[in-house]
Specification:
By secondary structure, the chain is of the alpha+beta class. The protein is built from five helices and four strands, in the order αββαββααα. Helix content is about 50%, strand content about 15%. Helix 3 (about 115-125) packs across helix 4 (about 130-145).
Length: about 170
């Protein structure tokens, strides 16, 4: 099977995406609207299940939801993947518990100098990660957690630049 190429669609309108999934997701699946995040490879739909019902704990509620909705979720994902040319993944929250179902782990190639490789190797030697790939993913998550406001501001600035560019066309 040939490798999947990065999505050739340059822009995906968030409003169109949200409206499409709001129409496709059955009423009652989630408390409130689903959260939709995406990049060039994946669309991730996450919904809140609310408090667990009838003697179930959070994990049991999630497993029950996953099994009960599997066929419909896959049908929605198939249609969305055809429309938006991205892999669709699902996730839910129940109380403080979050679980994602079959999400994309996309490779990211990078060239690192000796000092940067030594940082990754130190994480491996310290038992933080099992491989350089896992160590690099750990570093990216850590930056995302600790620089979240800065990353958010940067994304908003990029969106404003895109709006200005689109006004010129």
């Amino acid at each position: 099977m040939a490798p999947k190429l990065r999505n050739p669609i340059p822009d995906l309108d968030p409003t169109t995406l949200t409206e499409w999934f709001d129409d496709a997701i059955p009423t009652g699946w989630f408390h409130g609207s689903a959260t939709i995040r995406y990049d060039a490879d994946e669309i991730l739909i996450t919904g809140d299940l609310g408090p667990p019902g009838a003697g179930l704990n959070h994990e049991q509620q999630i497993v029950a939801y996953r099994e009960a909705t599997r066929e419909q979720r896959m049908a929605i994902a198939d249609e969305a993947e055809e429309n938006f040319r991205r892999t669709v993944s699902w996730g839910v929250t129940c109380g403080e518990t979050e679980m994602r179902f079959t999400t994309v782990n996309a490779p990211a190639m990078t060239r690192l100098r000796l000092e940067e490789r030594q940082v990754l190797d130190t994480l491996i030697d310290g038992g933080i990660a099992r491989s350089r790939s896992e160590a690099l993913a750990w570093c990216v998550r850590l930056v995302g957690e600790h620089e979240g406001d800065w990353i958010t501001e940067l994304r908003e600035a990029i969106a404003r630049v895109d709006e200005v560019r689109n006004q010129r066309t």
